Amino acid sequence: MLKGPNWPADLYNANRNGYEFAFGDVTDTPGFQGKGPNDNPASIFYNHQFCQFTIGTTTIWFDPSYGCYYSGATQEARELDFDDGSVAGYFVTNTANVREWVIGVDLNGNGVTTDVVQRIVMLIRPNAIGMREMARAM
Fold first, then answer.
1. DSSP strand pairing (58-63 vs 51-55)
2. Which of 38, 73, 75, 116 is placed for a possible disulfide with 34 were both Cys, Cβ 3.0 to 4.6 Å?
3. Measured distance between the N- and C-terminal CA atoms of the chain, rounded to whole angstroms
4. CB 12 within 8 A of CB 22
5. 70 sits in which H/E element
């Protein structure tokens, strides 16, 4: 659950090098090193893009942010290579009424955990390997 009502600004911690949640069933763990001095770059993307190169009959998707590429004879095969090799999970956000007593967190800061508080929540599910879920998520 995001720590405040402002999406996506409330997702990042003050140093903008990690995520800050009021409550969560998942945690951010270090991933691949990004460009520059960032050892743990963002793991949530809203518009991550690749460059597509075709040389002869071979097409690859190059990811300049991570310096890696995804290959396959068809677009579906490249999507599966990306999905299986780089995506840990997918998420949606929604506004929900959260029962503080269920999660044991005083979300509105009034000193008690007996309230129902409306918050933006992030529902995350793990990526199923071999399923080409990227196509379903779009």
1. antiparallel
2. 38
3. 22
4. no
5. strand 68-71
Q: What single letter denotes the amino acid at residue 93?
A: T
Q: Cα separations (Å) of 69 from 8, 27, 89, 128?
A: 28, 26, 19, 20
Tell me if 101 sits within 8 A of 108, measured CB to CB. no
pTM value is: 0.64
Rounded to whole angstroms, how far apart are CA atoms 132 and 75? 11
57-86 pLDDT, tens digit per residue, is: 999 999 887 788 999 999 999 989 988 888
SS3 content of the chain, % helix, strand, coil (to 5): 15, 30, 55
In angstroms, the Cα distances linking 114 to 100, 102, 107, 122, 123 are 6, 9, 10, 22, 23
Q: Is the pLDDT of residue 39 over 90?
A: no
Q: For residue 92, what are the contacts with CB-CB under 8 A and spacing of at least 6?
A: 122, 123
Amino acid at site 18: G
Q: Where are the alpha helices (DSSP H) in the chain?
A: 75-86, 100-103, 133-137
